[in-house]
Amino acid sequence: MSLLGVENVTKRFGGLLAVDHVSFSVPEGAVFGLIGPNGAGKTTVFNLITGNYELDSGSVSFAGANITGKPTHRIVAMGIARTFQTIRLFSDMSVLENVLAGRHCRMRSGPVSAMLRLKWQRKEEREAIGKALAELRFVGLAAQAENPARNLSYGNQRLLEIARALASDPRLIILDEPAGGMNELETAALVNLIGRIRDRGITVLLIEHDMSLVMKACEQLVVLEYGKKIAEDEPDAVKQDPLVIEAYLGSGDEDF
Amino acid sequence: MKPDADNIRKGAYAAVAVLWILAPLYLDKYWTDVLNNVAIYAALGLSLNIILGYGGMFHMGHAAFFAIGAYTTAIVNTAWGVPVLWLMPFAGIAAGVFAVAVARPIIHLRGDYLLIVTIGMVEIVRIALVNNVFGITGGANGIFGISSPSIFGRQINGVVAPGHYFYLLTVFLGATIILFSLLEHSRFGRALKFTCSDEVAATGSGINAAGYKLAAFVIGAVWAGMTGTLYAAKIGFISPESFSFWESVIMFMIVILGGSGSIPGVLLGAILIIGLPELFQGLQQYRLLIFGIVLVVMMIFRPQGILPPAPRKYPVDKLEKQEVSL
């Protein structure tokens, strides 16, 4: 069954057609990759799905509901969590607090219940911290819970972003170049982590240009070039696709 | 137990609290009244701290909300004789409603732009008061004859018995401190801090950033409005000059100098900015000069304020044990 449906999505920035009638659908439970050379429009597609940008045309549906034009925080509450390509952590706050940000949309206490220190409010707070710690254990950062986020290494900051996204109990997690800045060891651990996320029943949509990671982690790929979809298939088939090879390596008959 | 920094800090706070509560016993009327002013500005600073400290919004028009609370109290009390303490919630609501109306269209503005708009707002309010809008604000002369608060039939007169008024203000300030520290350490306070730290990341994590910013504005305004009631009732007289742009600047400085986002910092800021100049009465004409130099030096060497917020501690050890299924 399709969890996320992207239908004829188009986005223009002035004269630049960043995303041109792109359609694909992500089946529930899959690890789905969106790849393409630099500037192909991958992150723009992400930002269109998560409501960071407004669509010029087309529509996005999630779990049977049309989410086109919905505000980002609503989309997160509906079950789509994301990480950022350029790491965006709350760097002065602790690792644990960063994860609590992701938990926010599953909590409901407001200013009045906080000032009255109601019993359910305290219980909710305790449960949120417990859940946040559990997510930190899941990505392997539990020991750092009380450190400020800015003290983490680059790779660990990426993991923290994943923990923050997972804390919102998403049905779909969108990872935007999670291997960026990671060494080989960390990337291998990331492939493992992505598998464990899928095993929790969470669908993964991965944007990446590290081909080795994509080939190992994904079951299905969509390839973008200049904002257009040029291929959609299983990783092994995509690797053989002449259009894809040309997009990544350039065609053989160029004159120099 | 070894006296670590945390315990020293707690001990110092307790000592200051005891000194504060006993102040009317060892201070004369004049100095007690100075502390009353400190208490009023501390409450104003704490209410601004929600907007400026946690929310990170450069709001330099806080005196407008203070004015609306004070004038609501003064007008209703002098016209219909409603006891002033009953008017406190109404003063708060009036300021809160005004905040919603004003803040909604400007809440998305960033940093310096918001600053300019809020300066405009506080000037418009002051000019409206001077020009006697709707014929109810008394123009430049203000409003006289606001009655003193009474508790169980006992008048608490801020002019005749500042020591009594001191305890009324202390109860209000104490309640403000407790409520706001609960707020700071809640889902609401965290959401504001996330928004202040990185709005895109906060929204991407599922936080309605614009909604929280507006809520912060309203809570800050409601509290400034309620503080306005206690101010109006203290000397029984208010006029537009008590709510000028300069008053907003003072509140802003209290928060920034003391420590943006830190309750102890804001309290210290109020003591230093309202209380300290009284000590230097003799230096009258140099007072502002020294004040200015101190501010410049502070912003260079300690831009986060004198007492910046301490990192939040969570009961991690206690919760580590319990397993949570994912």
Annotation keywords:
heterodimer, A: 256 residues, alpha/beta, Rossmann fold, six-stranded mixed sheet, four-stranded antiparallel sheet, 10 helices, 24% strand, globular, B: 326 residues, mainly alpha, two-stranded antiparallel sheet, 2 strands, 1% strand
Please give a structural write-up.
The complex is a heterodimer of chains A (256) and B (326). Chain A is built from ten helices and ten strands. With 256 residues, chain A is an alpha/beta fold. Chain A has a domain at 2-79 and 170-249: P-loop containing nucleotide triphosphate hydrolases (Rossmann fold, 3-Layer(aba) Sandwich), CATH 3.40.50. In chain A, α3 (95-103) packs across α5 (119-139) and α5 (119-139) crosses α6 (154-166). The mean pLDDT of chain A is 89. In chain B, a hairpin with a 2-residue loop joins β1 (150-151) and β2 (154-155). Chain B starts with a helix and ends in a 5-residue tail after the last helix. The relative contact order of chain B is 0.17. The mean pLDDT of chain B is 89. Chain B has one domain (30-321). Chain B has a two-stranded antiparallel sheet with strand order 1-2. With 326 residues, chain B is mainly α. The chains are: A alpha/beta (256), B mainly alpha (326). Chains A and B meet through α2, α3, α4, α5 and α6 of A and α7, α8, α9, α10 and α14 of B.
